[in-house]
Amino acid sequence: MVEKLSLGSIQADVLRKRIKHVHLGVFPPEGAVRISAPEHMALDTIRVFAISKLAWIKSQQRKMQTQVREPERDYINRESHYVWGKRYLLQIQELQAPAKITLKHKTLLLQVRPGTSREKRQELLEAWYRQQVRQEAQALVRKWQAIMGVQAGKLLVQRMKTKWGSCNPKTGLIRLNTDLAKKPPEHLEYVVVHELAHLIEASHSERFVAAMDMFLPKWQLYRAELNSLPVRHEVWGQH
Ligand SMILES: [Zn+2]
Question: With the C-alpha atoms ordered 209, 25, 68, 108, is the resulting torsion angle positive or negative?
Answer without folding.
Answer: positive
